[in-house]
Amino acid sequence: MQVNTLILGAGAAGLMCAAHAGPGALVIDHARAPGEKIRISGGGRCNFTNLHCDPSAFLGANPHFPKSALARYTQWDFIDLVDRHRIAWHEKTLGQLFCDDSARQIVRMLMDEATGAGADLWLETSLADLSHDGSRFTATLDRQGKRQRIEARNLVVATGGKSIPKMGATGMAYDIARQFGHAVTETRPALVPFTFSDTPFKPLAGTAVPVRATAGAGSFDEAALFTHRGLSGPAILQISSYWHEGDEIVLNLDPGGQLFDTLRTERQSQGRRNLTTVLGQHLPARLVDFLAPTLGLSGNLADQSDARLAEIVGALGDWHLKPTATEGYRTAEVTLGGVATDRLDSRSMMSRDMPGLYFIGEAVDVTGWLGGYNFQWAWSSGVAAGRAI
Ligand code: FDA
Fold it and tell me: Which of the listed residues 136, 145, 188, 375 has the most CB atoms within 10 Å of its CB?
């Protein structure tokens, strides 16, 4: 059988590409249903884009690479599409847009767009073999137990990254990239909780606190969450993308920078109260109790000199921790790194070395922050390839 375009992966990027690739596109996926990650994303409501989407929210070896695709299909274009399909949405926080009802609406919308554009979808189909004869790709597919040969002018690789293997994530995109001479940058789990081998935060499990979390060049003001195994919460997931094994992270428990002045003022009105009690008005009481022995928190607030208050606030603002590891691909929202962008055309996502070969979505070495950025990259890169085809 001959098709114009064979798209590997019916996830966010693959379906979006199919919607723009014109008739004669065949999308295959080894899963039973399309868009499974979309379905479970955002707690079932899919954080489908971010109002503040901008190339600075993306990591990769070449920070300029995502600019073209993101500029040519923006968050506003995707919001238009969602509106045309009458899917109600709301902004939750920090520009993050979610469906009011269900992430399934986004999957349905993409399926309608793709099939409306003339694409076919084969589920429970995997790739057994792939070759290129100089002008066409030949793929041997395993479709529900039967072998099928497909010839295609274009091949779009949209099989995502390695995160959540239980959901069918494979490293297939990297194998195909290498097969056709493309480099793959180092991959590691990102947007993922940290673990600590001595589980120091067990007594705090479930406690959330606003922080400024920093790892390497990444610094985020959001909530951190103590867990049985270590640290999670949006601020922590964000900095995990900037963290390397062996690095320290820094938590600033006074991200607003007003605690010293506040405590000085309260020393006049609440001087007879315990220091820990007063601190417990600004930080979770369990966290204050946890830190008290290390920071030597004792006595009444009135007993604390300015210098002592400055010392305490300084320590709260500069808490150094050394995670042992992350929870890995088992829970990571995305894979950092991937198909190297140096030999891809940033306007079309096509290989510079093999015309007709495209890589899109999470498979590529472009990784967004938490908050709808990764889906926007899937939409933008999918449209870039689809339009170029
Ligand atoms: P995606 O993973 O969506 O699709 C790849 C497809 O290829 C899958 O359907 C898979 O079955 C198929 N496939 C893989 N290997 C194959 C093989 N060997 N043969 C055949 N098919 C194969 N992002 C965001 O912006 N907002 C959010 O709210 C969330 N929430 C979220 C929650 C959770 C739990 C996770 C794990 C991830 C998120 N993300 C997110 C990240 C987001 O899901 C991710 O960035 C996109 O789905 C990437 O889109 P792709 O199409 O590139 O890959």
Answer: 375
Which of 8, 41, 92 has most ligand 1 atoms within 8 Å of its beta carbon, as the pocket-test mutant? 41
Q: Which of 139, 145, 119 is nearest to 127 (CA)?
A: 139
CA distance 113 to 15: 8
Q: What was the pLDDT predicted at 144?
A: 81
Instruction: Decide whether any atom of ligand 1 lies within 6 Å of the 141 Cβ.
Output: no
Q: Is the ipTM of this complex over 0.90?
A: yes
Q: 10 Å Cβ neighbour count for 76?
A: 11
Report the pLDDT value the prediction gives residue 22, as an integer from 0 to 100.
86
The residue nearest atom 39 of ligand 1, judged by CA position, is: 333
Residue 32 Cα to ligand 1 middle (Å):
14
Q: How confident is the model at residue 25, as a pLDDT?
A: 97
- The verdict on the CB of residue 53 being under 6 Å from ligand 1 is no
- Mean pLDDT per block of 10 residues along the chain (389 residues) reads 97 98 95 97 97 98 98 98 98 97 98 98 97 96 94 98 92 97 98 95 97 98 97 98 97 98 96 97 97 97 97 98 97 98 98 97 98 98 98
Q: How many Cβ atoms are within 10 Å of 354's Cβ, its own excluded?
A: 16
Residue holding tokens 């479930």? 206
Residues 231, 208 contacting (CB under 8 angstroms): no
Q: Which of 99, 159, 379 to mutate to test the pocket of ligand 1 (most atoms within 8 A of CB)?
A: 159
Residue 50 tokens read as: 């971010």
Question: How far apart (Å, rounded) are the C-alpha atoms in residues 336 and 82?
Answer: 28
Separation of CA 171 and ligand 1 centre (Å): 12
Question: Which residue, judged by its Cα, is nearest atom 31 of ligand 1?
Answer: 41
Angle in degrees, 0-180, between the axes of helices 306-316 and 285-295, rounded to the nearest 10: 110
- Phi and psi dihedrals of 345, rounded to 5? -85, 125
Ligand 1 atom nearest residue 35's Cα: 9
Q: Which two tokens stand for residue 103?
A: 């992430």
Rounded to whole angstroms, the Cα distance separating 223 from 230 reads: 14
Closest CA to 113 of 6, 20, 12: 20
Report yes or no: 154 and 389 within 8 Å, Cβ to Cβ.
yes
Rounded Cα distance between 334 and 348, Å, is 23
Q: Percentages helix, strand, coil for the chain, rounded to the nearest 5? A: 35, 25, 40
